[in-house]
Specification:
This protein is an alpha/beta fold and about 240 residues long. The chain contains 9 helices and 8 strands. The strands form 2 sheets. A 5-stranded parallel β-sheet has the order 5-4-6-7-8, sandwiched between helices. α2 crosses α3 and α5 runs parallel beside α7. The chain is globular, with a radius of gyration of 19 Å. About 35% of the residues are buried.
């Protein structure tokens, strides 16, 4: 893209670890880029021409722990996470935030992105007897299989997740079933939510999804609309 197509700017990649791998070359070519990268390793020094559409690992960790401490009033948590760079950063940030709130971390388990069975990791964490399970997922399918496995184990522990767990809920539920989302809370952008009493389908995001469905009805079911929003808004950010 840089050497052959002679691009002036780049939108992408989506994954933090892929962004970290490509950023040195983009820096050398002085190509501005906008990605969906949450890892704390992506600093202004590491990517001087880079901007991310995603909240940092530190920001996500702070919000997750604040919710657990304030709303759930939990005294202990366990963490299950994928093997991506962003999740690795978020685990470090979570550990620091949990210590500030005097919330005990009973265990941490990692799985490979695109795994379909996390029962072993979940069983190990269950044995540590946490009050809450924090789930840091890399894809909507990861979210689906974690919740499916949790349901198969009849483990009713409350789950608090990262943005992926919310953004990919529709596709995740195709794997887990919608009932598996009982007791599950995840981060999301305020503009993408609604309150009881709000008229459905009237928000900017709802209208955006309607436009997306009309634009590409054949593939709409396979999209994570929030990811589409990231790239859609990236065009305006570049402009």
């Amino acid at each position: 893209l840089v050497q052959t197509e002679k691009i002036d700017a780049l939108i992408g990649p989506i994954s933090s670890q892929i962004t970290l791998a490509t950023i040195p070359f983009l820096n050398q070519a002085k190509i501005p880029s906008i990605s969906v990268t949450g890892t704390s390793a992506m600093t202004p020094a590491a990517g001087p021409y880079h901007f991310s559409m995603l909240p940092s690992a530190d920001s996500q960790a702070e919000s997750i722990v604040n919710y657990i401490a304030t709303s759930l009033k939990a005294s202990s948590v366990a963490i299950i996470h994928d093997d991506g760079a962003q999740s690795a950063s978020t685990v470090i940030a979570l550990t620091k935030e949990l210590a500030k709130k005097n919330i005990r971390l009973t265990g941490e388990q990692q799985y490979a992105i695109a795994s379909k069975d996390m029962t072993t990791q979940l069983t190990t964490l269950r044995q540590s007897n946490p009050d809450v399970l924090i789930a840091l997922t890399g894809t909507s399918s990861d979210s689906g299989y974690i919740l499916k496995n949790r349901q198969e184990m009849a483990w009713s522990i409350p789950v608090v997740g990262n943005i992926t767990l919310a953004a990919g809920a529709e596709n995740a539920a195709k794997i887990s079933g919608s009932a598996a989302y009982q007791g599950v809370v995840a981060l999301n952008y305020k503009e993408l939510t609604y309150c009881p009493g709000d008229a459905l389908g009237t928000s900017y995001y709802s209208k955006f999804k309607d436009r997306l469905r009309a634009f590409d009805p054949a593939n709409y079911a396979s999209y994570a609309p929030l990811v589409v929003v990231y790239t859609y808004e990236s065009v305006y950010a570049l402009k």
